[in-house]
User: Which sequence fits this backbone?
């Protein structure tokens, strides 16, 4: 049984901790649960507290933390929406406090939190938090798919207006078509995350993350490009996931992207992303042709940025 000394409360809104009975350690408002787990201190259970009247505004807030004086340092490029989403996703438990005037809307927020963090416990106010189990290490949501875990849930049928969809595919994205479709793909999306690959840099895993604004970036190399003598240096879960899902043509390269929102159209997202994949004709021309495709991402994310798995 956990005690209050084993629990820490996390929230972008520090006053929210006052709604939780008991005495717990309260983290700084800009803390992320994975930072705590990786910080070398005894591993606590992290409960993220979300006030009902501030949740949607927080998730959609594109203001940089530096604009409100809460950035860690000059390299901190997080937006408020990024931080709120990560506090939800990385928590052992997510507690919604307070209620909206409409009980249906309050339940909508509860469904939304379960879709955003399906791997976490979702207690109701008044439930004992001492039953929350702690994780043994960082959750690393953006790399879950590379380790064989789900990056989200596929629940395309709305529940209280909340839908979630997961897009999976093998063939690469055409960089120019994907770039042109980004606004359409993220329309109405409260949170998206995962990884993908571009035909123009077939050796590079790219991460995808949005909450308010969209952030893309290089993550690592694909194991398909990694010499055999370096495989032992790769995370064992990722090696196992790659081996179980290995494709004779693509190797371990694939897309896995999760989208969650209110009044979301999963069919539109799937059709839009599918149109961004290489056509049969483009695919048949081979990798050397792919690398020469127009790539609007090249300036921001050069192919040489990451070479290791």
Assistant:
């Amino acid at each position: 049984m956990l005690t209050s000394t084993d629990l820490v409360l996390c929230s972008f809104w520090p006053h929210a901790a006052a709604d939780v009975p008991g005495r717990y350690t309260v983290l700084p408002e800009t803390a992320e649960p994975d930072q705590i787990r990786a910080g070398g201190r005894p591993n606590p259970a992290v409960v993220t507290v979300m006030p009902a009247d501030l949740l949607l505004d927080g998730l959609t807030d594109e203001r940089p933390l530096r604009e409100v004086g809460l950035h860690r340092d000059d390299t901190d490029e997080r937006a408020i929406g990024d931080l709120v989403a990560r506090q939800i996703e990385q928590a052992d438990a997510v507690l919604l406090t307070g209620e909206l005037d409409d009980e249906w809307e309050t339940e909508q927020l509860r469904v939304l939190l379960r879709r955003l963090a399906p791997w976490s416990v979702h207690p109701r106010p008044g439930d004992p938090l001492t039953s929350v189990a702690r994780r043994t290490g960082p959750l690393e949501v953006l790399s879950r798919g590379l380790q064989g875990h789900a990056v989200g849930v596929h629940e395309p049928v709305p529940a209280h207006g909340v839908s979630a969809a997961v897009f999976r595919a093998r063939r690469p994205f055409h960089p120019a078509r994907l770039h042109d479709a980004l606004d359409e793909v993220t329309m109405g999306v409260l949170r998206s995350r995962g990884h993908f690959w571009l035909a123009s840099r077939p050796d590079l895993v790219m991460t995808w993350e949005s909450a308010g604004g969209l952030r893309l970036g290089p993550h690592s190399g694909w194991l398909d490009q990694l010499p055999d003598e370096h495989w032992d240096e790769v995370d064992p879960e990722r090696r196992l996931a790659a081996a179980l899902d290995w494709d004779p043509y693509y190797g371990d390269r694939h897309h896995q992207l999760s989208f969650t929102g209110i009044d979301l159209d999963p069919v539109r997202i799937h059709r839009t992303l599918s149109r961004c994949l290489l056509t049969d004709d483009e695919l048949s021309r081979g990798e050397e042709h792919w690398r020469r495709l127009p790539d609007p991402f090249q300036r921001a994310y050069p192919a040489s940025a990451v070479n290791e798995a």
